Amino acid sequence: MQSPERALAIRPPALEVSAALFDRATTAPGRVHPRFVEILGRFRGIGEDYFSLARRDPGYLTDLRAKRHDEPRHFFAANAQLLLKDDPEFLLGFATCGDACTEDLAMRLGVGSPGHPRFDQRAMVRSIGVESPATVAHMMGFYVNSLGSWEDAVELASAVVEYASALPRNRDAGRLLESSGQALAVGAEDRRARQAWDRAAVALPPGYDRFFLSMRVAAAELKRFADFSRAEKAVRTAAEEADALADHGHAPGDCQFAQALVLNFQALIDLINDDLSSAGDRVEKAWGMIGELSSADLTLEPATANRYRVMVLENRGLLSVRRGLWGDAYRVFAEATALARACAPDSLAETLSLAACVRLRERKFADARQMLEEAADLLAADTRPGAYESVCRMLALACDEQGDSDAAAGWLDRAREHPTGPGWRGKDVRR
Amino acid sequence: MEGSSSPSPLTDEHRSELKKMRGQLAETSDFLNGLLQAWNHAGEQEYRDLKETAEAAEAARQAAERID
Fold first, then answer.
1. What confidence tens digit (pLDDT) does each residue in A313-328 have?
2. Which residue on chain B is closest to A60 by alpha carbon?
3. Mind listing the pLDDT tens digit for each residue in A93-134?
4. Closest by CA position to A186, among listed A7, A65, A304
5. A400 touches chain B (CB under 8 A)
6. Which residue among A67, A222, A400 sits closest to B40, beta carbon to beta carbon?
7. pLDDT recorded at residue B1
8. Using the beta-carbon criterion (under 8 Å), do A396 and B18 form an inter-chain contact?
9. Distance between CA atoms of B32 and A370, rounded to whole angstroms?
10. Residue B24 and residue B37: Cα distance in Å, rounded?
11. Phi-psi bin for A99: left (phi > 0), alpha (psi -120 to 50), beta?
């Protein structure tokens, strides 16, 4: 592929600002959080190997939670402000024709005002979308996952739908359309989201691509549009695609794994319909099917498979919580933690915090504290201030229950600081 | 002074926060929902809202059919 400079004849302002911030951050190490430099540096992969560079970052456009998440926005804005607070005029050029992201940053720094014409995302889709839909998909991912700008992603996705008939019918275009559908769903644009998904289904090759499209459509129909009928239809399609995986070069284990994910989703529908018994049966069956399979049985990438394994385990644990079976819930969350520790490290802080939550409820404060301290350490190196805050508050409670008021006060202070800046790791923690 | 207890590092604000958390922990679903929200998961309230939205949409659809 071409470099972003050549590929993107029309460069979104966010890309210009990111490049400049990246230069400033790398020439002044220590001023910002190290992960900020790493994540911001993804801009270099746009038009090239963005998805490889970002493979371990949270991917909110493919996440079955199908939900807006603002932590990347807070993380980006806090760090960008640190770099620009002495030079806000740098943003003046972007304040009157920026994208939503740069406009927001300019306003935070007092050099912008709302109501100016925005950068035209359609121009970018027109100029590059037909030739290189992957480049546009990279930009959409960068907006959401690195900059936290859902507004820009929705505008870009709307432009993609507008020009959808001009896009090629291939996997890259299918993935761009799929991501566009997810961004539009999160932006509550149901009609255009469905147009994007319909086009994606035609462009994507059969196999896992179409299976996961159907699963994501089902999740978004249920969680964003509360349309049970469409969600059930999409999950039936996913089940058919799961059965057909073997016809498209996948192993028999893949069919079983995908069917388990279908069951896991159907359990969610049961749960919403207050049918705990059926939800429990389905999730147990799903885990049984997944538990029989090793990575050698699957063509699915192990990292992806392990993330889904953890997801199903977490759902088992949450169902035990709903039933008040605390001992069971702890055993399952501990199992999820062991799995995450062994082969899904990106999920470890989450599983630790869930297990610790149950331990707090059981008044096993020493256990809870140990797990939460590990989670806090992991999150201090991460980009999720909300999760970090939640873990700090739980830690404060565990410490206070143990009579350690010093540590409790320290963790509460940290929880309130929303540590997104360079002092994040350097703060004195009174454990 | 020897023998006197050192002042607690907890401020009134800290104590108030801890008290609130203890209350949430007693109502475990509140506590867990807060955590799930931090991880961007849907909690029970979100599920209830989804069901209500779906039921309202279905009622509106049936009403529209009757008018047709």
1. 999 999 999 888 999 9
2. B40
3. 777 788 999 999 999 999 988 788 889 999 999 989 889 999
4. A65
5. yes
6. A67
7. 37
8. yes
9. 19
10. 14
11. beta
Q: How far apart are CA A171 and CA A195, in angstroms?
A: 17
Separation of alpha carbons A354 and A329, rounded Å: 9
C-beta atoms of B50 and A226 within 8 A: yes
Residue A7 confidence (pLDDT) above 80: no
Contact A264, A283 (CB under 8 A): yes
Q: What is the DSSP letter of B42?
A: -
Whether the predicted pLDDT of A418 surpasses 70: no
Interface of B with A in 38-67 (CB under 8 A): 38-42, 47, 50-51, 53-54, 57
Judged by a CB distance cut-off of 8 A, whether residue B5 touches chain A is no
Residue A248 burial by Cβ neighbours in a 10 Å radius (0-12, 13-18, 19+): middle
Selected residue of A274, A390, A417 to mutate for chain B interface (largest B Cβ count, 10 A): A390
Q: For residue A260, what are its two tokens?
A: 């388990």
User: Does A271 contact B at CB distance below 8 Å?
Assistant: yes
How far is A8 from A123, CA to CA, in rounded Å? 10
Q: Model pTM? A: 0.91
Nearest to residue A409, comparing CAs of B16, B4, B3, B5?
B16
Determine phi and psi for A313, rounding to 5 degrees: -60, -45
